[in-house]
Amino acid sequence: MNIAAIDHQATKEYVYPKMKHKLVFKLKTAQKDWQDCFLICWNRYDKEKTLRRVKMNCCYRDQYHDYFYIEVDFNQVACYIKYYFELIPLQGETVWYGFYGASAQEETTEHFEFLYANENDGYIAPEWADSQIYYQIFPERYKNGDSPCYRSDLEPWGSPPTRDNYMGGNIKGIAEKLDYIKDLGITCIYLNPIFKGTSNHKYDTEDYFKVDPDFGTKKDLAQLVRQCHRNGIKVILDGVFNHCGFYFSQFQDVFKNGKNSKYKDWFFIDGFPVQTEPPNYECVGFFKWMPKLNLANPETRNYFLTVGKYWIEEVHIDGWRLDVSDEVEGAFWECFRNKIKEKYPDTILIGETWGDASKLVQGNRLDSAMNYLFKDAVTDWIAKERIDTETFDWRINFMLSRYSAPTIRIMYNLLDSHDTSRFLFDCKGNIEKLKLAVAFMMTFPGCPAIYYGDEIGMSGDNDPECRGAMEWDIEKQNLPLKNWYKRFIRIRKSSPIFSKGSFATNFCDNKLGVYGYIRSYESQNAYIVLNRSSDIQKVSVPVWEENTRFMEVITEEMVCSEEKANPAICYNGDIMESKGFILASLPAYSVKIFINKESGECNDK
Q: Which among 277, 286, 337, 407 is placed 20 to 30 Å from 14, CA to CA?
């Protein structure tokens, strides 16, 4: 037993309110050390000291650790809750774990304490957030609509993309294609920056209160949002508040007036006069055309709080995707969240980070984050085949262990973006691999996010090649692939099991390259199994139910589970004890989804 690996602290990472009367407890241990784990708790002011002993569940397992969870309802405000843990090993003596660590005797164990569940201490996000199918659009390359363009340097639509060329995509072009977006099944559009900037990507913002003339006007944007809302589609904008463009008026004032500029504290200037070769001011990614903003400065902070509210009030957007949010000081996001949410609580705030997003989604900053941990794991396992199936499972379970259950359900799960090579490029053009990744994304906890053009087979290496012009010639679109996206979006929407259900691994075979998991919600279970190999694989998928009728969702074929002669504990320790199995034949790079039907038993056997 690895006693040193046991970890719990009375902090929000390990204990948090789901509601004022419900607490979620988490305990981390070494992998496979403990057969059972119990939470023992009571109220400090309970004169009878009535102890509750509740079994915790091992929900996730990564390469080194098991993660045990339990949700406890106290039937009143959860306050002054004393608690500790009882761990029963597979072999050896029971251990009790409290504030000062492990103890061989229960009576000497020091206790943790949770003091009070305040109204807003939980993970509160818009109710609509977990049901979204996102669609990311790079405006300059989506569609050239019926709108005057003031540029004289446009290249023909579909020209090889570069970091400097323009093809004329605009807001009206997006509006013209709303029928296409709606037909695909999209529920929320995320637009890369549309404010006035110098480049084709507009991440070098000059004016945060003006739509770039390349894309249209504020009126065009408001009209697009209205059209989207009429079609049941939400819109979020890209907020670039970590840095600005070189020609942002406040930075230009500093550049011209030096230490006499009233805006000098808006930036991080190392000396005067300001110089660009090399820059003596902080920049994002050391790129001199994007000076970093000092959001600790009250004037700068207030300016961007105003920007955040302005576009919600003026054109009624539904939220913000916040660029490089992990480089912005946390105090700003706490202030930003408070200012936005106090008047617009249904607004969603999504942060960009390429790693662990824990510090952004603790409930007091942002609601969600771009889930690059998800993207990287799927790319490495399916597209590049750089990791085996067990390593993939470890990485997925580690990722899930980092976030609360409410947060997991609303994470922005992407396969690629404007900042990465397209997934199909990483697959070396293998459409079946892309389809497998789409199936996983659509059936995994969190919100699927599609980068424009992926659904019709667009490919391309990293920037600028991933930012090619959308292909609107239907003869050049991969229509079977688009239908696959549409089918899995329908599957995603067909049951709350995929948006709200729990997750557990139940099958992981390195030799076969087959991975299976369970999504469960209320009385229904969905068993998803993926074949990442180039061979046909025949497997026995473990299930909770024996002698039960299932529908395979993709083919709508009805199958029955077989009874196991000797029920065995499945892959993830005590997550599930299988009572039966389903025989499944999986073609290369394929997926099957089995959902138990309420009609239940196979009486026709």
A: 337
pLDDT classification of 370: cutoffs 50, 70, 90:
very high
Active site residue 323: yes
Q: Would you call 92 helix, strand, or coil by DSSP? A: coil
Residue 550's Cβ-count burial label (10 Å; 0-12, 13-18, 19+) is buried
Distance CA 416, CA 422 (A): 5
pLDDT for 601 beyond 90: no
Identify the CA nearest to 41 among candidates 113, 139, 131, 91: 113
User: Which ranges constitute the DSSP H helices of 316-388?
Assistant: 330-341, 372-378
- Strands laid side by side in the 562-563 sheet: 537-543, 580-586, 562-563
pLDDT band, very low/low/confident/very high, at 120 (cuts 50, 70, 90): confident
Tell me the three state secondary structure of residue 397: helix
If you count DSSP H runs as helices and E runs as strands, how many of each does the chain have, helices first? 13, 29
Residue 154: DSSP 8-state: B
Burial label for 341, CB within 10 Å (0-12, 13-18, 19+), is middle
Q: Which of 232, 327, 239, 234 is nearest to 287 (CA)?
A: 327
Q: Which of 318, 323, 367, 454 is catalytic?
A: 323
Contact 254, 263 (CB under 8 A): yes
- Catalytic member of 62, 66, 220, 352: 352
pTM of the entire predicted model? 0.95
